[in-house]
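Researcher: Here's my situation. A collaborator sent me these components and asked whether they could plausibly form a single complex. I don't have experimental data yet, so a predicted model of the whole assembly would be a useful starting point for our discussion.
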Amino acid sequence: MSATSADAPPPKAPPAAARPAAPPGSRRRGVELSLTVAAVLVSVYGYAEVGLATRGAVPRDAAGYGAGLALLAVLAHLAVRARAPYADPLLLPIAVLLNGFGLVLIYRLDLEPSLGPRAAPTQLVWSTLGITLFVLVVLALDDHRVLARYSYLGVTAALALMAAPIFFPAVNGAKIWIRVAGFSIQPGEFAKVLLAVFFAAYLSANRAALAYTGRQVFGLRRLQLPTGRVLGPVLAIWLLSVGLLVLERDLGTSLLFFGLFVVLLYVATGRTGWVAVGLLLSAAGAVAVGSLEPHVHSRVEDWLHPFASVHAGLGPGQLAQSLYAFGNGAVLGTGLGQGHSELIGFATKSDFILATAGEELGLVGLCALLALYALLVARGMRAGLALRDPFGRLLAVGLASILALQVFVIAGGVTDLIPLTGMAMPFLAQGGSSVVTNWIIVALLIRVSDSARRPPPALPEEDAP
Amino acid sequence: MTRCIRRCAALCLVLLLALAVNAVRVTVVEAGSYARDPANRRIAIARYEHPRGGILVGGASVTGSQQTGGQLAYARTYRDGPLYAPVTGFASQTYGTSLLEGTEDGLLSGTSSQLASVPLWNEITRDRQRPGDVHTTIDAAAQKAAYDGLAGRRGAVAAVDPATGRILALVSSPSYDPGLLAGTGPAVTDQWQRLNDDPAQPMLDRAIRQTYPPGSTFKVVTAAAALESGAVADLDAPTDSPDPYRLPGTTWSLTNEGRGCEDASVYDAFRVSCNTVFAKLGADVGLTAMARQAEAFGFNDDGLRVPPAVARSNFDTRMSRDQVALSSIGQFDTTATPLQMAMVAAAVGNGGELMRPYLVDRVTNHGGAVVAHTRPERLHRAVSEATAGQLQELMEAVVSDGTGTNAAIPGAVVGGKTGTAQHGVGNKGTPYAWFISYAKPPGANRAAVAVAVVVEDAEAARADISGGGSAAPIARAVMQSVLAAPPRPYDQPVS
């Protein structure tokens, strides 16, 4: 923050005194604008560097690409400035940088004919749609608490969305896509936001009952199960969603929902027992699925022995290729356009996009990306801490956790930290539904952070419980 | 709730930190082992990303590179591939490398640290070093003369500069075009299969990798042993040699092709190649002295690298007397590469001093600066100066008035020895025709070129096979082409 504070007008009073008063200057929209412009410039630079490294010339459409991205970013900024003036100034620039850089990586991988047709133009269209929806959400949604009213409608929609791909053919072993007019949509991505809203709404409404009533297990106060009447609907919906996902064989998303559910339950009730129960459930589930489902079983084997196929003389598998790519990147990376992550083959632009970043930008680039995600998550959590209404708090924590879990599941998967499950790296990976959903998540975070940072009306301050 | 959110945030931080720590593992800790994994295609991609360095003969590259349009960007090409294949070997994207392409691979592919103009610079910039060029000692005219002389017949030619050990020609026939193996794909694998299945073994580098019984050309070594050990003092004195000669301890008698071998002098016996005289001479000199002399000429050496490895030429060190007698006329278990026999002729022509043969004169980096330069080096003193003079007398008589008159070059002093080697079970195989020789330019007292030729001529009738008939004209052509060229300084790199 010290680097950016120069953009803000110098505070006249000492910062400690200025914080509660919140003069117009602390909205820090100027910071947001300059960081957003910087994010666009970094992306355009990356775009130019790919061209220079591979063809020796700046790509002809670099200016158009930059102008388009800048226009979208400035529109998003204007929407925030108009309707969420107190929102956290880091959220939008980070999202723009990640999205812009993701486009650079996809554009770079488009240069490899072996990876199939070009994907960057489509991704740019989806990004435009995502930012448009971001603007619409920021403009249309006055108060995040409105969402709580539609939580049951939302969860119905979420279940419908998740069920829809069952009626479409499986793609690469997973039934998670639906094809409409040539576009592939992953409805499960949109369901993430709807489920987070529902969990937040339901748990905030019932948290007292969940936390303070119920039977004790083994006479332990800490291990207290709530009554079935309270917990029933939550468990039912969670089981339903997880069951649907196992049917569709999209284990990454299943893991994500499970994690989200446990986190929100814990935050809502403050009961460590939930975490224990959650971990037990997930361990049991993992063992059961890992041993029964061959698709998952092979993923676990790959995780434990990524080079087994090499030793068997069958050549490196995708995960081994991904690790080779990271290894080739070393500390500083080969430079954009000069790696060979195309060797990964299938899903290089989507699930394995981080390998390209790792190879061409090195450990330094990976750490920068992880720091960006960490900042995004931290800013979401911070909004949750600063808010007063339980629904808002749970929503902020839920959305931030979705991002963190998603990053962990896929980045951990492609670097052989955990078994690989298909999931999109937020904003970076090719995938329209994912990028649109992430923009909606950021829009909601902007909305809640605006409420969190808005100076309180002239009322006596009440302490948070 | 606040505390729970903080814990939840802390958990997310831990997850992301775990990713960062694991990123260190895969990009730094394990990077080395990933980079060395042969299954990692990046090794091959980087290797073929740029044109390979050149192998040069007489300042002109006999190799090139062409773009493949595939993942491995550049493949090797060869100018006069079959002519130079016994020198260059192949550099294949599918089958690796052989001969000079193999031994000089680090320089040709650019990985060798010898090439760096500024130490560690490429490690910092991560730029790949530009490859270097390998300048061979091969004399293009001599190589061509040898190749044309063999004219597709099975055989090999090796020629060296006796004073330095520079290898002037290495020819193996039939040969193949290594360019056929350069790339990848079914065309390359088919060619590989075809070349390996060919009974004529076109990929065998006969000049340095194939050993043959040297036959009568080995009599040079036997004569040397006899002179060095003192068993023979006067070349013109008659020897006590029966014809036929019954091998000691056996009932088997050795005969000669020609007449006049009974009690012949060493001079005459060498000139007309009497088996009986030299078999007895070897048996009289004895195993120890014979083996010592053979080893002084380079036999029984596993470690000779030019830098491609040269097959071991053999003279047994544990034999009965009859076996020593047979070995002394280049039969029994005695075998030699053509290069080995060229070294024998070279040592005689060079006053008894045997120089270490070498194929790479110098290596230059991309900028043309010399990064490595081979200095001539003495391998052994094979025989004394005096013995060398006597051996020259014998070998020059073979060309002036003996079995090797086909090798005579007007104006030059040529010494040689013919050989016709029996081989196969019961000596039923078609004999090999040998000729080894050296040539002194007019007025010089040291030889400027030494050559060994072997023709496995399977087509010819047995009676026609003789070193003098088949092999000597090839040797003459090679020597003539070397003598015709102006002498070039060997110890000063061409700038």
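Model: Some features of this prediction you could bring to your collaborator: The first strand of chain A starts at residue 178 and ends at 180. Chain A touches chain B through 53 residues (CB under 8 Å).
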